[in-house]
Design brief:
The complex is a heterodimer of chains A (251) and B (217). With 251 residues, chain A is α+β, with helices and mostly antiparallel strands. Chain A is built from nine helices and seven strands; from the N terminus they run ββαβββββαααααααα. In chain A, helix 3 packs antiparallel against helix 5. With 217 residues, chain B is mainly alpha-helical. In chain B, helix 2 packs across helix 4 and helix 5 packs across helix 8. Classes of the chains: A alpha+beta (251), B mainly alpha (217). The interface between A and B is large, with 50 and 46 residues.
Chain lengths: 251, 217
């Protein structure tokens, strides 16, 4: 059932990476609850443009929960109060008339704010470039059963590969650690025979890059997995530790 | 050295020293339990752990375990606060599955450290330390009487035990996770084992303190 709600929107506004930021409060009137959160921000921006003010900058792309571009820390949760969903999959029916909704950018030293709610997540690209791939040509598709892979390993690799690299794990972590992201990227290869050939080299390179970029140390609070829009499991972090420790011991 | 200059390595150091300290606490609780049964037998345990070479070696290793664990805790926390950045969230909510202890390990650790200093002053400084200096040590029984004869000691010790209990309920499974030995099934199992381990050991300590307080008053 659609109805309209009015609420206060507290949005972080910041002119540039070096400028000091502040919260700006906007009164939103009669927003249909079937509006998505990003559409609601679009409505706000239309209003701001009409008034001659600068619109709120925020990241978005596919708006169907697969690209990992949208972010936003809404009312104390990355990607808002819904679980297993990105901000673009969040609808205004989650909120109530008269609410105050606080919208903040991801906050982590490794993700500096570019403007308003937009942060620079290039650090994740750098970690991927350090080893998040298979560097040899695997040739054409083989017969389905030429390389036997257990159902368990195939499923886990697929689950790990569902990470969209949005950075919610870093945003949720009190230590600004990127372990859930790195562990998902390491796991998706470590579980499959094609990825095992370079497993040791990969885990060392990706983890060294992660540390170099200033992400924190994991203290196993589990906030990352609890807030992950793709439900990446905490056990991936243990696998990353295992892969790294055994690679270092083999040196 | 990867144990100090990689994030995973630093957590390995925390895990190994932490598990070592949990083992120590377990033996400590069991050795105290001797005094519940017989004070004479307890005196023999105290003598055995006096200033003999093996007891001194054990003490040195134990002290190293504590010192490394504590130094790394402050170092990791300092790095993590830096990684979090200068701006804090205005609204931040703890997801339901996140344990309170896991987010407050340093605070709990500082409480435990204060308790440890008090405890060392009350026992170690009167027993092993004088013996190392060439003096006569206080007997185990006298040290117990001197400490638990004061009524304020028991509640302070119980507060220390609660802090250690919280610290271990997270630390136990977290150590196995950091050592890479956990998976989807074993995370829950380690949590369960850790909870019971912490509860049994700390309950034993609590019973001992309550008994000594009753006995020496």
């Amino acid at each position: 059932m659609e109805n309209n709600i009015s609420f206060k929107l507290k949005v972080w506004r910041q002119q540039g990476p070096k400028e000091p930021g502040r919260f700006e409060t906007y009164e939103m009137q009669d927003i249909p609850t079937d509006t998505s959160f990003l559409e609601m921000l679009d409505i706000l921006n239309e209003q701001l443009i009409e008034k001659g003010e600068e619109p709120v900058h925020f990241d978005h792309d596919c708006r169907e929960g697969i690209c990992g571009m949208c972010s936003l820390y809404i009312n104390g949760h990355p990607h808002g109060p819904a679980t297993g969903a990105t901000t673009c999959q969040l609808y205004m029916r989650r909120f109530h008339d008269g609410d105050t909704i606080t919208v903040e950018p991801w906050r982590s030293a490794a993700f500096p704010v570019i403007k308003d709610l937009m942060v620079n997540r290039n650090a994740f690209d750098q970690i991927q470039q350090a080893g998040g791939y298979v560097s040899f040509n695997t040739g054409g598709a083989q017969d389905a059963n030429a390389i036997p892979i257990s159902k368990v390993a195939a499923d886990e690799a697929m689950d790990s590969a569902s990470c969209i690299g949005c950075g919610a794990c870093v945003a949720a972590c009190k230590n600004g650690s990127a372990m859930l992201f790195v562990s998902a990227k390491v796991s998706q290869f470590a579980l499959l025979p094609q990825g095992k050939a370079e497993a040791k080299k990969r885990v060392k390179a990706m983890l060294a890059k992660m540390d170099e970029l200033g992400f924190g140390n994991c203290t196993n609070t589990g906030a990352c997995a609890a807030e992950c829009p793709k439900n990446i499991k905490l056990s991936n972090i243990s696998r990353l530790n295992r892969e790294y420790i055994s690679a270092k011991c083999a040196d | 050295m990867w144990l100090t200059n990689s994030s995973v390595g630093r957590k390995v150091v925390m895990s190994i020293t932490g598990l070592f300290l949990i083992l120590f606490l377990t033996f400590h609780a069991l050795m105290n339990a001797v005094a519940l049964i017989s004070l004479e037998a307890y005196e023999q345990v105290c003598e055995f752990l006096g200033a003999n070479w093996y007891a001194l070696l054990g003490t040195a290793v134990l002290a190293a375990g504590f010192v490394i664990h504590i130094i790394f805790a402050f170092w990791l926390t300092w790095q993590n606060r830096k990684a979090r950045g200068e701006n804090r969230y205005q609204v931040s909510k703890k997801p339901a599955t996140v344990e309170w202890a896991s987010q407050n390990m340093l605070v709990l650790g500082i409480i435990v450290l204060c308790f440890l200093v008090l405890h060392l002053a009350q026992f170690w400084a009167k027993m092993q330390l004088p013996e190392i200096m060439g003096d006569y040590p206080m007997s185990g029984q006298d040290a117990l009487a001197a400490t638990f004869g004061q009524v304020w000691v028991a509640p302070v010790y119980l507060i220390g035990f609660v802090a250690i209990w919280f610290h271990i309920t997270h630390g136990f499974w977290s150590a196995f996770q950091s050592l890479g030995t956990a998976n989807e099934k074993w995370i829950e199992r380690f949590k369960c084992i850790g909870w019971w381990w912490a509860t049994i050991v700390m309950l034993l300590f609590a019973v001992e303190v309550c008994y000594f307080t009753w006995f020496f008053n």
